[in-house]
Every structure is written in C-alpha cells, then in structure tokens.
Design a protein that fits this description.
- This protein has eight helices and nine strands.
- The chain has 199 residues and is of the alpha+beta class.
- The protein folds into two domains: 77 residues, no CATH class; 107 residues, TATA-Binding Protein (2-Layer Sandwich), CATH 3.30.310.
- The two termini are 28 Å apart.
Length: 199
C-alpha cells in the first residue's frame, strides 16, 4: 500500500523527469520545474521542488481544493508509479481487483447510489457533466462516460436509468491495467475522486 503525500513527493523529486514524462504520459513545463498533467481534462501543474500543485480552471481548482485529500495523493502516486503501458481496453469491476474488498466496507464504499439518484432520470445531465471533465460516451448501459483521471488510468461510469422493475443504478469500471499504474489504495482514491467530481 502507498504511504502518504510526503513519501510520494520525496519519491517523485528523486525520479528522472524524462522517465516520469514517458511513464505517466505527461509533459514537462518549458523551464522544467513542473510536470503538466491532464486530470479529468484539466491541466494540473505539479512542482516537486516546491511541493506545489496548481490549476488554471474552475474544475481544476475544485480538484485541488475541495477534493484535495484524494487528488493530491492520487496525482503524486500516479506520477511516481505509472508505467509506460497503454490501457488494455478490458473493463473490470472494483471487486475484480486484488484489493477489491476495500471498496465494499465502511467509508471506502463509493457513492455510486448518490450518482444514481442524481443522474438516473437525467442521462443528458450526466453526459454534460462528463463532457465538462473531458469525458466521452462509452456506449454501455443507458448512459456511460469514459473519464481520464490520469492519462493511463481510464475510468468508466455507467448509469442505468430507473424503470418499473429496477431502481436507478450506477456502476464504476476500471481498465484492467489500473493496478500496474497505481498502488492498490490509490486505485480506490482515484475511483472516489471520479465519483465526487461527477456530482
């Protein structure tokens, strides 16, 4: 399991920038003092030398403000641990992961019910929010959006609208390579962040 942000900052500062850029599919700022990362379609500048992250969009500021607990940890560990391996295109459920049980207990349960309540009767609003976050239609369920929390870590959210027999439901799916890119607990943090930013 990953440790905290201090450990991640330290590891990231010690990595060759060319290696980080290649592995995480990010760019280096012209002066070389920052990594420029696309996170939900927002450019985040990460400066290991100053232990600082900044964004220049309203959504980016929400990511680094209201959701900083999840975003800072996930961004740092992604940059520090990503591999130059493209997504497989094979989608899996959180329960299929090695640490899948983490998604099923206590405060680790994802707020998928809240997403279902919010979007179960309004797929257009779901697509609109996903589009704002750089997402694209995924062609699953009654409505689905493929988001990119990180360049090599796609997440798909699927909404099933309410009908006479079933209540509205939302599922979250990962690309099967997610555990190559992130420590197990950071996979969970990324899933939580994906849910929260869609609300």
């Amino acid at each position: 399991m990953a440790s905290g942000t201090d450990t991640a900052w330290t590891i990231l500062a010690g990595l060759p920038p060319d290696q980080v850029c290649a592995n995480a599919a990010v760019r280096s700022a012209p002066a070389g003092e920052a990594y420029l990362l696309s996170c939900f379609g927002q450019e985040i500048a990460v400066r290991p030398g100053r232990r600082e992250m900044t964004a220049n969009t309203p959504v980016g500021e929400i990511l680094l403000g209201r959701f900083r607990y999840f975003s800072e940890l996930a961004i740092l560990w992604y940059l520090a641990s990503a591999k130059a391996v493209p997504p497989s295109g094979k989608l899996i459920r959180p329960s299929d992961l090695k640490a899948g049980q983490i998604f099923a207990t206590g405060s680790h349960v994802l707020p998928l019910d809240k997403l279902a309540q919010q979007y179960g009767g309004d797929p257009q609003a779901f697509f609109a929010r996903g589009s704002l976050l750089g997402g694209e239609a995924a062609g699953l369920g009654d409505a689905a959006v493929r988001l990119l929390p990180f360049p090599r870590v796609p997440v798909v959210l699927v909404v099933w609208t309410e009908c006479e027999e079933f209540r509205a439901r939302t599922d979250l799916l990962f690309d099967s390579t997610c555990e190559l890119q992130l420590p197990q607990d950071i996979v969970w943090a990324t899933a939580m962040l994906s849910c929260l930013i869609m609300m």
